[in-house]
Amino acid sequence: MSRSIVHMDLDTFFVSCERLSNPKLNGLPLIIGGTSDRGVVASCSYEARKFGVRSAMPMKFALRLCPQAKVIKGDMELYSNKSHEVTAIIEDQAPVVEKASIDEFYLDISGMDKFFGCYKWTSELTSRIMKESGLPISFALSVNKTVSKIGTGEAKPVGKLEIVENMVRPFLNPLPIQKIPGLGDVTSQLLSRIGIRTIQTLSEMPADVLQQMIGKNGIELWKKANGIDNNPVEPYSERKSISTEHTFEKDTIDIPKLKALIVGMVEKLAFQLRSEKWLTSTVVIKIRYNNFDTEIKQCKVAYTSCDHLLINKVTDLFDKVYERRMRLRLIGVRFTGLVHGTYQIDMFDDTSEMISLYQAIDKMKNRFGFDAITRCAGTTMKDKKK
Q1: Average pLDDT of the chain?
Q2: pLDDT at 380
Q3: Largest pairwise CA distance in the chain
Q4: How many CA atoms are closer than 13 Å to the CA of 295, on its beta-carbon side?
Q5: Which CATH number fits domain 1-165: 3.40.980.10, 3.30.70.270, 3.40.50.620, 3.30.2010.10?
Q6: Where are the domains of the chain?
């Protein structure tokens, strides 16, 4: 049976959320991101893109290209709430849903064409999303995740596209190689230098030659260029979480020691989030007193994977949950409500230097181990004496 995979993408999601809250922004070139000269563009409207503005661009440079643009810092709480709203609508109707990011979804509706037309069913779902959420959305329906994702990019804005099995290659062939999901700038430039600029040219290369050129990802890239992708749609669940706990050898009431431990725990979990390309929307702290009474407190946060934001939230929760001033025997931290994404989602508050710092730190940790570089606040007095 041929698969029917849908990719849905909320068009200029952050911009659309802001315009929903303030219709006066409609039609204006709009940039969302850090508002200082050293800030970074998190998102921009199609009106701003016409001037060459792009995500991850330094704000200072973006305003040179489009000086008339209106700049907004962004409201991640609003975006998170709207993302949850759209997710609930999709999960209410679709049999299998994968939430790929805060504004991106895959649906496996294979077999539904026996009862409904898959394209008609998806069109009706997107109409419901736009009516109930007020947000524009595009989709593409095809035989796998790769082709559907590329199709959505071609359908935008507010577009619909179906690529049936026998039209996959004719659809992909004329497109530039940059349209392939996961193809980085370095690989793209390497291929362009040897004359490989379209997906068709790339698909006609021998797979083993491509692997020799760019390494282990060569085979996967060749498959994508040929419209081959057997990856399943992974059912999305808010119950996914990562956590860590620490049981003390001797029960303690040392607040500085406890907070230093919390910082280290959060830092480690946040690094895991970024390594696995997750964002969390809920933080949880657990404490156990020496009489074995256990207290748990949690709070919602704007999707993030940044240490400095999560540390503040978790330490605030600790101050609220630790009320008895009794000795503790255990402390734990958990992040839940995970969706796929990267720390560039935090560009609203962070400068380009902060984003670069996280990238540099993670690179060092990946190369030399997590303990190669840590926050001073996450180092206990015992560690400092070593």
Answers
A1: 88
A2: 46
A3: 70
A4: 17
A5: 3.30.70.270
A6: 1-165, 173-231, 241-385
